[in-house]
Specification:
The chain is mostly helical. Helices cover 69% and strands 0% of the residues.
Length: 153
């Protein structure tokens, strides 16, 4: 998922000529870093989230109900501890928000749109959604190439 988001966000950055594509790619790879804690501490995390997500509730809400905290907040703590830049911290902490996305800047908007696109919940009327939809095949090819290289595909 993070590779898909990273490839999408990098492509958006290049097409819209905003932000450094390498920076956007990096933060996109890290946006779900808080999930690692759940996978390590709760071996059944993935199956639990899949079972619960059938009710239409977003994953962050499910995590808060199940664990008392979500992966965005855990990721924020990690990002602060590791002294990530403020824009990285904001993306990690708020990447599931769809309200007031402009308050966090263009890097957030790119990652947010790409994350929604990867989850098939993008807005096809937004400029980002239109571009991502048009580039869907190119994004898929890049993801497949990376996955093959990493021997994960």
């Amino acid at each position: 998922h993070s590779i898909h988001v990273a490839c999408s966000a990098k492509m958006l950055s290049k097409r819209l000529l905003v932000e450094d594509p390498a920076k956007v790619y990096t933060i996109s790879l890290l946006h779900d870093i808080g999930k690692i804690v759940f996978y390590v501490c709760s071996p059944d995390y993935g199956n639990t989230m899949k079972a619960l997500s059938g009710h239409g509730q977003d994953i962050a809400s499910l995590e808060r109900e199940t664990f008392g905290i979500d992966h965005q907040e855990i990721g924020r703590v990690i990002a602060i501890k590791w002294k990530f830049p403020t824009d990285f911290i904001n993306v990690i902490r708020h990447h599931h928000e769809n309200q007031n996305v402009d308050q966090f800047g263009s890097i957030f908007r790119l990652v947010n749109a790409s994350n929604r696109f990867a989850h098939s919940t993008h807005d096809p009327s937004s400029s980002e959604g239109i571009i991502l939809e048009k580039e869907k095949d190119n994004i898929t090819q890049e993801v497949d190439k990376i996955m093959d290289f990493l021997q994960l595909g």
